[in-house]
Each structure stands twice: as structure tokens, then as C-alpha cells.
Design a protein that fits this description.
The complex is a heterodimer of chains A (about 325) and B (about 350). Chain A has about 325 residues and is an all-alpha fold. Chain A is built from 14 helices and 2 strands; from the N terminus they run αββααααααααααααα. In chain A, a hairpin with a 3-residue loop joins strand 1 (about 10) and strand 2 (about 15-20). The longest helix of chain A is centred in the C-terminal third of the chain and has 38 residues, at about 225-260. The radius of gyration of chain B is 25 Å and the shape is globular. Chain B starts with a helix and ends with a helix. With about 350 residues, chain B is mostly helical. Chain B has helices spanning about 1-35, 40-45, 50-60, 65-80, 85-90, 95-100, 115-150, 155-170, 170-185, 205-235, 240-250, 250-275, 275-290, 295-305, 310-335, 340. Chain B folds into 2 domains: about 1-115, no CATH class; about 115-340, MetI-like fold (Orthogonal Bundle). Classes of the chains: A mainly alpha (about 325), B mainly alpha (about 350). At the A-B interface, helix 6, helix 7, helix 11 and helix 14 of A face helix 1, helix 8, helix 9, helix 10 and helix 13 of B.
């Protein structure tokens, strides 16, 4: 244990402590209150998403189940927040209390739907980002490292994918593939890998001819070893930043697709679909909370991942400053 | 220059070819395999008999092997419908009547019209939306970008940074709904929804219906363009020729506008041309939210009704549009910067 610590903080003579770049970045991040706030929000969101089943048993309103008490008998509108809670805030957690109201004209419970919607957003955000970053790394690093016509071909492919509108193609493709979770994840990854891919390609292109790569090659290192042991560690910064930004992008993309009514099957709750549920017949004019709860949560979530990505970029590359 | 042009057009044609292949595979084999739906069954209407389906297959040429269908589809896209197909789809009608029913992009399943005429009817709405919102976003973002580049890290610059980050995170459809609720419904500033066509005598109905959707769409793009303008301006402001201009005694506004901004504009113009595709994507959400009967709304409508030829037609049409816009942008850049065409 002591040996490890000794290794991390190299005590140079005179008590000066040499710190690794990652440690420096972590320290800068610790003073970035916007990024810390984002981390806190994301942590709370994860808890909120995990609590779905708890909310179900509290309210007695299972997921995707219509409740007669969730629709007003006279206006036929979904009931508003705190309906069915006789003692006000004290009765939060009691059975049949609509803490945040109902989420659609069938009387689904808003709290339960939001919580499971958070689960959907987080799962899609993380899995689609994983695919995006892996694809971007593979293609970006190969393009940057190999160069020549391979690079030209991959770079052109990136331009082509970037030029086409995600939504139009996703709508068309969802007609053919039908609604499914994996379809949404794959189509999002398919239309997002080019952006981090370009960044990784650029980084590798800049690093490829540096002295340490030449030195490694002189010592007889294979290409695989140079890429994995010498180049990859340099890419940890951009990878972290674009993972955070990609999660934001994927969550926004899923919500937009669901808002249009494509992609996810109806039994998987989604914030985007909850917003679109408020639209038919101008429901949101009389009951604006129907769109405001999922809409606000969506904005905050996307903003949190974007701000975190931005904070990470500042922490990992202080010379770039606040790169707009 | 001619060689450059030819190379770019061939490249563009190749991209369109790949998109046609992708669309064909999606709406042919993939549709049948994943959803167990064939276009013939969709076309034949509710509870068709096996005989009906066979007839439709012959009518639409779906009894042919896939590669023959693709070749016919491609031929029709380039040369227009063949006489043989005209005779099958609209027997006994004149060429003009038949053009209403069958075009380069085929004929719609849901409506007895050619996809071409549907696109032609809807495209002006999307184009109007695009033009008005592009004007708004350039007018918002370039001044903000320039101002925050002149005084980096000032309060104004920091506020612009916040605007950019928030603007990028906003879902346009939700902001659209909020805008309708507060500005149109509560305050009555704008019409609730719909579209009026452009009239030269009184353009106000057209503009008032477009203003709010265009504004919301512009907000999302403005954020991106503030960012690009700022970083481009920061780059050019540190160039030697800017220092030279200052040393010669040029006034600060003149240095910023005539020397720095002019040089910073080239990448912005390039971006602008390339963002046409993104604009079409954003237009889908805005059109659906604001009840504008544009191309994006048509795509969503057609996809919900499983109107395969219309959905495919819109995708192909936008692909051609995007590729064409890319070539125009490349040409403009090449004529402005000789280094590009020698590449």
C-alpha cells in the first residue's frame, strides 16, 4: 500500500511533489463547480431511475397501467400534481397519490413513468455511446495511423454520414426494422460515430510523427503495440470528453425519435414520447405540466452531460481554456 | 477547375447511388424480413386475398427478382418512368394524366398521386422555413460570436458560452411547444399553428405563421454558429495581417470587420452550406410541432401509414439535395481558395 502511494506521488528532493497529468486534471475538476453540479445531478438521476419499482409500490400505480383515478371525471383531462393526496405533502408515498399528476389521458402515473423513462434514457445513452466510441476509435485511429487511401476513404465516409440528417433516415429505417430498443441504439450509434471519430483521427495524425512514436518503432515495437501502448494513453482525454458529450447526444436523439413516434416499442417508457403524449388535441394547452415535467428533466439531463463533457475538456486540457 | 468539378460530381453521384441501394435494401428485403410486410400487401389494402396480392405484385413489378427491381427503380429515377410501366400503372390515360400518378420517385400508396407531385407540393413550406430561420440564426450568431471573440473571457463572453451550452442542449420540439403555449396561446402574439403560402402583395400572413417556428429552429443552430464564429474570429484576430492593419492605424471596427471577419467568414459559409442536411432534420421536429405541412411532416405522416414509396422518395430527394448543396459549397470554396482545387 505504502509502496503504491510512494509510486503515485514521486517525492522529488526538497519535498516537491510531482503529480501525474490525470491527478492534475482531477484537481482542476474538483474546483469546477459547474462540472461537480453536473456529476451530482447525474448521480441523483441514476438513483431516481433505480427507484422506479419503489415508486410503483408506493403509489400502487404500476408502470404502463391506466388508472381510472388518473383522469378527471368532468374535464377528462389527466389529473394534476398532488391529486389524490388528501394531506398535501405529508401524504407523499401513500397509495393512489399522484405526486406529479398523471402523464397521459389514460391516467398513467407521471412519477413512475418519469422514473422508468430515466432508466430508458440512461441505458440508451450509455450503450449507444459505448458503440459510438468503440466505432470512432477503431475507424479514427486506423484512418489517422495508417493514412494513405485508407484514411481518404474513412474521412470521406465521415463526411457523408455527417451530411445526412439523422432523424429523416432514422424515421425511414424504423419503418423497415419496426420498433425495438436495439434498433434505436444502433441507429443512434451509426449516425454519431463520425464526430468523435474525426477528433480521434486528428489526434492520432498529430501524434503519429512525434519522436516517442519513432523511438518506439526504432526499438522494434509492432504497430499494434505502438497504437495500444503509446498512442491510446494519449487519447484518454478526448475519449472521456466525447463519452460524456455522446451520452448527451444519444439521450437527445432517442427523445426526438420517440417524440415523432418512432423507434422504441410502446411498452418502453420514454421522455420524448411523454412530451408527444401532451400534444394530441392540444392537451398541453389545458394541462401544461404534461410536457413540462418530462421536458425539463430531458433538458437538465442533456445539459448535465454536456456541461460535464465541457468541464472534463477544460480539466484535461487547460491550455485550450474554455474551448467554445 | 473543370476536372475538380467533374471529380466532385462523380463523387456525389456515387454517394447518391449508395443511398439508393441502402433505401432499396431497407424497403425491400429488410422490410419483408424484419416486419413480415411486403409492399405488395401494403398496397393491396385491407385484408387482401392471395389473388389481389399477386395482381399488385405484377402491377408494381414486385414479382421480379430484387436486382431487376433495383435496376428498374434506378432507371426510373434517372430517366423517368418507362412506357412499359406507364401502361401497367395507368392504362388508357394520357401521358399528362399518368404523370400525376407516376413519377421518378414512384407513386404513393396512401394517395393516388405520384411521390414527385407530393414532394413538389410540400417542399416550398420546408424551403420557406429554412430560409427564414437561416436568416435569423446568422443575424443572431455572427454578431454575438464576433463580440465575444473581441473580448474573450469577459462577462459577455461568458454569457455567450452559457447561451451556447444551453442552446445546444435544448430539444427544439419542446421549446416549440413552450413557445406555442406562452407566446401564441397565453399572449396571443403568433397564430397557433398552420401555414399560409407566400403572396407578394401581402407577405405578412406567410411571415407571421413562419416566424415562431423559424425562430425556435434558429435558436438551436445559432448556438453552434456562435461557437464557430467565436473560434474562427479568435484565430484570425491573432494573425499577422491583423497586427499589420492595426499598425497601419486602421480603426478597430475596420480591423475587426474588414480584416478579421472577412477572413473568418469562409469556414462559416462552408459550414452553412453543409448544414442543409441538419436543417432538414431539425425541420421535421419543427414542422410536426407547429403543424406546418412541409417535407418533414410528410415523411413522418408517410412513415406512420407505411407509405413506402413516399418515405423512400423523400429520403432520396433529400439525399440528392444534400449532395448537390455539398458540391455547390465545394465549388464556391474552390473558387475563393485556389489551394482547395489543387489538392
Amino acid at each position: 500500500m505504502a509502496a503504491v502511494e510512494e509510486h503515485q506521488d514521486l517525492h522529488v528532493d526538497g519535498g516537491v511533489v510531482a503529480r501525474t497529468p490525470l491527478r492534475l486534471a482531477a484537481e482542476r475538476l474538483r474546483h469546477d463547480y459547474v462540472a461537480l453540479g453536473s456529476v451530482l445531478f447525474i448521480a441523483l438521476l441514476v438513483l431516481f431511475a433505480l427507484a422506479g419499482t419503489v415508486f410503483e409500490s408506493w403509489t400502487g400505480h404500476p408502470l404502463n397501467r391506466s388508472n381510472a383515478s388518473g383522469v378527471d371525471d368532468y374535464t377528462l383531462l389527466p389529473v394534476g400534481p398532488m391529486v389524490g393526496c388528501p394531506d398535501g405533502l405529508a401524504s407523499v408515498g401513500e397509495k393512489h397519490c399522484f405526486v406529479l399528476g398523471a402523464s397521459n389521458s389514460l391516467g398513467y402515473d407521471m412519477l413512475v413513468q418519469l422514473s422508468f423513462g430515466a432508466r430508458t434514457s440512461l441505458i440508451i445513452g450509455v450503450v449507444a455511446t459505448l458503440l459510438t466510441v468503440v466505432a470512432a476509435l477503431l475507424l479514427g485511429v486506423v484512418a489517422g495511423y495508417v493514412g494513405g487511401w485508407t484514411d481518404t476513404a474513412i474521412a470521406r465516409l465521415m463526411d457523408v454520414v455527417a451530411a445526412f440528417p439523422f432523424l429523416l433516415f432514422a424515421v425511414a429505417a424504423s419503418v423497415a426494422f419496426g420498433p425495438s430498443l436495439w434498433f434505436v441504439i444502433i441507429i443512434i450509434a451509426f449516425f454519431s460515430w463520425f464526430y468523435p471519430g474525426r477528433i480521434f483521427r486528428g489526434e492520432v495524425l498529430a501524434l503519429r510523427d512525434r519522436e516517442f512514436v519513432t523511438a518506439a518503432r526504432m526499438l522494434g515495437a509492432s504497430n499494434t503495440r505502438i497504437v495500444l501502448r503509446h498512442l491510446m494513453p494519449q487519447l484518454i482525454g478526448p475519449i472521456t470528453v466525447y463519452t460524456s458529450l455522446s451520452i448527451a447526444g444519444a439521450i437527445a436523439a432517442e427523445a426526438a425519435l420517440s417524440y415523432l413516434g418512432f423507434g422504441l416499442p410502446l411498452e418502453i417508457p420514454s421522455w420524448g414520447r411523454m412530451i408527444s403524449d401532451a400534444v394530441p388535441g392540444g392537451l398541453y394547452i389545458n394541462a401544461p405540466f404534461l410536457m413540462i415535467f418530462p421536458g425539463t428533466l430531458l433538458i437538465l439531463t442533456v445539459l448535465a452531460f454536456n456541461l460535464l463533457g465541457d468541464g472534463l475538456r477544460d480539466a484535461l486540457d487547460p491550455r485550450g481554456g474554455t474551448q467554445l | 477547375m473543370i476536372r475538380f468539378l467533374i471529380r466532385r460530381i462523380l463523387g456525389g453521384a456515387f454517394v447518391v447511388l449508395v443511398v439508393t441501394l441502402a433505401v432499396f435494401v431497407l424497403f425491400g428485403p429488410v422490410l419483408t424480413w424484419k416486419s413480415n410486410i411486403t409492399p405488395a400487401r401494403l398496397y393491396a389494402g385491407k385484408s387482401p386475398t392471395a389473388k389481389d396480392i399477386e395482381q399488385v405484385k405484377t402491377l408494381l413489378g414486385l414479382d421480379q427478382p430484387y436486382y431487376v427491381q433495383y435496376a428498374y427503380g434506378l432507371r426510373r429515377l434517372v430517366l423517368g418512368p418507362s412506357q412499359d410501366e406507364r401502361d401497367r400503372v395507368c392504362p388508357g390515360s394520357t401521358a399528362e394524366e399518368c404523370d400525376q400518378l407516376l413519377g421518378r420517385f414512384g407513386s404513393s400508396f396512401a394517395k393516388q398521386r405520384s411521390v414527385d407531385s407530393l414532394i413538389a407540393a410540400r417542399f416550398p413550406v420546408t424551403l420557406s422555413l429554412a430560409i427564414v430561420s437561416a436568416l435569423i440564426w446568422l443575424l443572431i450568431s455572427i454578431p454575438i460570436g464576433v463580440l465575444s471573440a473581441i473580448r474573450p473571457r469577459s462577462l459577455g463572453d461568458r454569457m455567450a458560452t452559457v447561451f451556447v451550452l444551453i442552446g445546444q442542449s435544448l430539444p427544439v420540439y419542446y421549446i416549440g411547444l413552450l413557445a406555442i403555449y406562452f407566446l401564441s396561446y397565453r399572449l396571443g402574439l403568433f397564430p397557433l399553428s398552420g401555414y399560409e403560402s407566400f403572396a407578394i402583395t401581402n407577405p405578412w400572413p406567410w411571415l407571421s405563421h413562419l416566424l415562431l417556428p423559424a425562430l425556435v429552429l434558429a435558436l438551436a443552430f445559432a448556438a453552434l454558429y456562435v461557437r464557430i464564429t467565436r473560434s474562427q474570429m479568435l484565430d484570425t484576430l491573432s494573425e499577422d495581417y491583423v497586427r499589420t492593419a492595426r499598425a497601419k492605424g486602421a480603426s478597430e471596427p475596420r480591423v475587426v470587420v474588414r480584416h478579421a471577419l472577412r477572413n473568418a467568414m469562409l469556414p462559416i459559409v462552408t459550414m452553412f452550406g453543409l448544414d442543409l442536411g441538419l436543417l432538414l432534420g431539425g425541420a421535421i421536429l419543427i414542422e410536426v410541432t407547429f403543424g406546418l405541412q412541409g417535407l418533414g411532416a410528410l415523411a413522418v405522416e408517410a412513415a406512420k401509414r407505411l407509405d413506402v414509396p413516399t418515405t423512400a422518395g423523400i429520403v432520396l430527394f433529400s439525399a440528392i439535395l444534400i449532395v448537390a448543396a455539398n458540391i455547390v459549397v465545394d465549388l464556391v470554396c474552390a473558387s475563393l481558395d485556389p489551394r482547395i482545387r489543387l489538392e
